[in-house]
Amino acid sequence: MQRRYTSLAITLHWLIAAGVIANVLLAWVWPNLPDAQVRPLIDSHKSVGITILALALLRLLWRLSHRPPELPAGYAPWEKTLSHVAHWGLYFVIFAMPITGWVMDSAWDRAAQNPNYWFGLFEWPRLSFITALDPATKKAVHDGFGEAHELIAWLVYLLVALHIAGALKHQLVDGKRELQRMWYWGRAD
């Protein structure tokens, strides 16, 4: 029986986790900086977000075509249910956050004067069907998707905390080798 996730699933998991942490830190830092320093951080935030979206798509495709290892024996039914809810919730947020951000950015009134560059390497397009909207509709879209982006951020915090707490509970309290299932080495059983 397969006890550990595949190497690709592990790599995608940790790359997405690193991206989420980076974007949370960027969003927490820029409100405390002078205006001149904020734009580069927001641009980095956008680049990381689009990267998370691409990695999330790969992760979901891999997940749909590769069955994950079964949860270890002995987990209570409520723990299994909560685990599945948290995992699918995390899939939702790693798609919803970059998409709401991309829509919000595409509706930004100064988007035409501030092209997006993916880590400064190449221009990342905005969504043309959003940029073509009339100014009043674009403002409504910008504000609405900006609010959604902020609300989903709270869901990210909740789900990540739940995910980490569950893994640590199983590892440290229950004595299961939970963390080894999502790492490259160590015995997972």
List keywords for this structure.
single chain, 189 residues, 5 helices
Structural class: mainly alpha
- Shape summary: elongated
Major β-sheet annotation: 2 strands, antiparallel
What is the tally of helical segments? 5
For the residues shown, what is the average pLDDT?
92
**Helix residue percentage:** 55-70%
Q: Regions with pLDDT < 50 over 5+ consecutive residues?
A: none
State the distance separating the first and last CA atoms: 10 Å
Overview of this protein structure:
This protein is mostly helical. 67% of the residues lie in helices and 3% in strands. It is built from 5 helices and 2 strands. The protein has helices at residues 7-29, 35-65, 77-106, 128-131, 135-173, and strands spanning 116-118, 122-124. The radius of gyration is 19 Å and the shape is elongated.
